[in-house]
Amino acid sequence: MINEESSNLTTIGIQEILNLLPHRFPFLMVDKVIALEKGKSITAIKNTTINEPYFQGHFPSYPVMPGVLILEALAQAGGILAYKTEEDDDLKNMLTYFMGIDKARFRKPIFPGSAIILKVELIKRKQFIWMFHGKALVDEKLCAEADLMASFVKP
């Protein structure tokens, strides 16, 4: 069991996620944060259901979550990590934009009904540019991973 008083680990529910990220349905890809260590890492959950609009067309007879949306989920988790790490007025008024994706690999498909565990680690940052490594897992099996780069910009 994690002793939350002796660490920076924390959980974040959907209301706070909605306060941190500008995304909304159908593009909000993080349902809950189950662990966060400011300046280091985040573990979040994205639950998939057959009701997700992308499953209707990708693919109708064999629904699979699009890889680009798995990467988006990892990026949103990284954005939450950045916002919670900084928690100052400079970032509160800024948006996080994707700058790059490297070494993206898709290992297993993700199907409706899956609970995707999003694990994102901060690799480094320089001012408003942040670099992360993210992994998406289902049932403890690696489904996708990538290095992600994001920047904070004024809207």
Largest sheet, described in full? 6 strands, antiparallel
* CATH architecture designation: Roll
- Low-confidence spans: 1-7
End-to-end Cα distance, whole Å, is 41 Å
What can you see in these coordinates?
By secondary structure, the chain is of the alpha+beta class. It has one domain: Hotdog Thioesterase (Thiol Ester Dehydrase, Chain A). The protein has helices at residues 14-20, 67-86, 89-92, and strands at 32-37, 41-47, 95-106, 115-126, 129-138, 141-153. A six-stranded antiparallel beta sheet has the order 1-2-4-5-6-3, covered by helices on one side. Strand 5 and strand 6 (141-153) form a beta hairpin. The longest helix has 20 residues, at 67-86.
Q: How is the secondary structure organized here?
A:
Blueprint: H1 14-20, E1 32-37, E2 41-47, H2 67-86, H3 89-92, E3 95-106, E4 115-126, E5 129-138, E6 141-153
Antiparallel strand pairs: 1-2, 2-4, 3-6, 4-5, 5-6
Summary of the model, kept short:
With 155 residues, the protein is an alpha+beta fold.
List its traits.
alpha+beta; 155 residues; single chain; disordered N terminus; globular
